[in-house]
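Pasting as-is:
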Amino acid sequence: MAISSCLSSTTFLPTSDSGLGSQFRLRPISIPSNLCLPISSIRASAAAGSDNSSAPLVAEKLPVIPAQAAVASRTPVIKWELDSWKKRNALQLPEYPDQEELEAVLKTVESFPPIVFAGEARNLEERLAEAAMGNAFLLQGGDCAESFKEFSANNIRDTFRVLLQMGVVLMFGGQLPVIKVGRMAGQFAKPRTTGYEEKDGVKLPVYKGDNINGDAFTLKDRTPDPHRMIRAYTQSAATLNLLRSFATGGYAAMQRVTQWNLDFAENSEQGDRYKELANRVDEALGFMAAAGLTIDHPIMTTTEFWTSHECLLLPYEQALTRLDSTSGLYYDCSAHMVWVGERTRQLDGAHVEFLRGIANPIGIKVSDKMDPNELVNLIDILNPRNKPGRITIIVRMGAENQRVKLPHLIRAVRGAGQIVTWVCDPVHGNTIKAPCGLKTRSFDAILAEVRAFFDVHDQEGSYAGGIHLEMTGQNVTECIGGSRTVTYDDLNSRYHTHCDPRLNASQALELAFILAERLRKRRIGAQRLQTLRI
C-alpha cells in the first residue's frame, strides 16, 4: 500500500471495506495546496453507546494540519556529514588506548563489503509503514547481546525457528502480515549505567559488549580492543548469511510448519498448542493444493527476515555506512534497522546526529522518563519529512507506567501529526534481582505490560504495532514464570546469559499465543463495527 505523508494536491485516506476485515484500501481525495495532510496511525474510538465501545474504528477523516503548523517546531536544518556526529557530545563510547590502532581497524572495516543492502532496508521501511497503519505487526526479537563464545549455527537456527513459530501464531490469530526482525547479526554493544566496575578493591572498565571488550574481570579483557570490531563484522556477516539461507533455502517454507517445534518444547503445553495450530495450517495448505491453488509460490516457500541492533558504537557504524547509488542516500549497512537507546537519545547528542543522516528505519527506545514534547522534537529531527515507516517507538516502562505515561506520549505525537509505529518492549522495564543475586524478569510482569500497552492503544484509538523481545531459542532458565514454571530455585540450572535475562523458547511462544488472541479480538471487533456501520 502506497502511503503519502504530505501531498500538494492529492492524497489518500484509508477507507473500510466490509470484505477486508481489518485491512483497508485507499481512496484519493483532493486537498488545497496550502494544506498538509499527515496520514497518521490514528483510529477514532467507537461511538458512544456502541455494543463494543472498547474496539477502535478507522477514522473516516484524518485531521488536516496547515503546513506551517506542521513544521513550526522543526530544528533548523544543519548540513549533515558522515562524521558530523564527532562534533557532538558522544556518550557510552569506549576509550581506546591507541588511536592509531583504532584508525587502522576502522579503515579495514570501511574496506569490507556491506553486511546488508540499501534496498532491503527500504523494503523493511515499507513494511513498517503498514504496521503504523495497523495493517501489519512487527515481531522483533533475539539476544540481549550476542557473544563470540555462543556463536554457533545451532543457536542461530533455534532463535530463527522460534521467531518463525511466533510469526505463524501471530499471523494466524491476527490475520495480518507479521514483520520478522531479529536482534541478531550485530547486537553486541550494550550501554551501561557506569563506566567502571570494582571488585575487591580493583577498578576496571565495565564490560560493554564483545565488540568492545571482554567480560572476564582482568585488565587485558576489559581494555577496549578495536580489533574486536573486525571479529564482530565477520560474525555478523556469517550470521546473516545463515539467516538468508534459512529464510530462502526451503527451511522457512510454510509446508514445514509442523517441523519447526524445538525438541525440548515438544512435550510442553505450548508445544502441544503449536502442534495443533500447525496441523490446521497444514490442512489448509492441503486444501489449497487439492483446489489447484499453487503452494510453490515464493511467498509460501520463503520468508522475509531483517536484522537490527542498537546504534551505539558510532565509529563502527560510520565505517559500515555507504552511499546508495540508487537513491543517493546514506545507509548504515551494518543492519537493516537500528535504534537509539534511552541513554543516548539526547537531541543534541552524537547518536541522534548520526542517525538523522542515514536512511534506515530507526527505532527510539522510550521509558517513563521521556517528556512528550521531547519525543515530538526527537521524531522531528530524525524524520523531518514525516515519512511512514521511518520511525518506530519502542516503549519500555513497566505496566503501571504504560497506563499513566504512554497516553500522553501518544497524544503528543498525534497532535504533531507524526507517523510512527508503536511497539512494546515488555522486558527491559521489568528486570529484578532474585534472592540468589541473579538478574531475572517475571513472565507475569512482562505479560502485564503487554496487556497495558494494548489497553492504552485501544483507549487512545491508536495502533499497537508490534512487540520487541529479548529471547532465545535455547532452553534456558533466566526469566521466572510461564506455563512451564521457572522458579527462583531453577535460575542457576541453565542461566547462560552474560548480560540480561532472556525469555526461553517456551515462554516466547506462550506470549505469542496470548498476543495472537488479543489480535484476533481486535480483528473481530473491527469487523463487527464495520458490519454495524453498513
